[in-house]
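Problem 12. The chain below contains 171 residues. Write out its predicted structure in C-alpha cell notation.
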Amino acid sequence: MKKMFFLVIMAIMTLNASAQTDNQVAPKGPQLEFVMQLKVTLDKAYSVGETPRGRRTIIPITGGTFEGPNIKGTIVPGGADYQMANGGRTEIEAIYCIKTDDGVYIHIRNCGIIRTGNSADGRPSFYFKCAPKFEAPANSKYNWLNNSIFVCEPSMGGQFNGIVLNVWEVK
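Solution.
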C-alpha cells in the first residue's frame, strides 16, 4: 500500500512539473515612457590618474538644456561626471542640477556603466546605460520625478558639442 501511494505521488509530481514547464511563458517586461532629452555641455576632462580602483576622470558640466513632454529648462553649470575606468569598463556618476522654465531646481544623480569590448561572436561592442535619480521639491508639480525609476542612454552622432541623453520612465 505504501509503495502504491508513493508511486501515485511521484506520478502526480512528475505531471505537475511537466505541466509547469510546458505552460511557462516569459513575463512581460516593463514599458518605457519618454520623459526628456538633455543636451549637456561639458568642459575639458581632467584625470586624477590611476588609483587603487582604476583611472579616475572628472568631466565638468558647464550647462545645457533639456526638454520633454511635461518638462523643459536649463542645466545648471557646476556639476560634474565622475568616472572610474578599469579595463574595458567605466563606472559613471554624474551629479548636477537642472532648472525648469518655471524656476524649479531639481537635483540629479545619474549612475551607470560604459563597457567596451567584443561580443560573443568577436565583433566590437559598446554599452552605455544609466539610471538617473531625481530629487524634486515634494510640493512642486515635478514631485512625480521622485517616485519612479528612470533609465537613460546617449544619442550618438549629431553635431551637438557635448552629450545628449534620452531619459525614460520605467512604467
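Discussion. The chain is about 15% helix and 55% strand. Students who got a different answer should revisit the alignment rule from Section 12.3.
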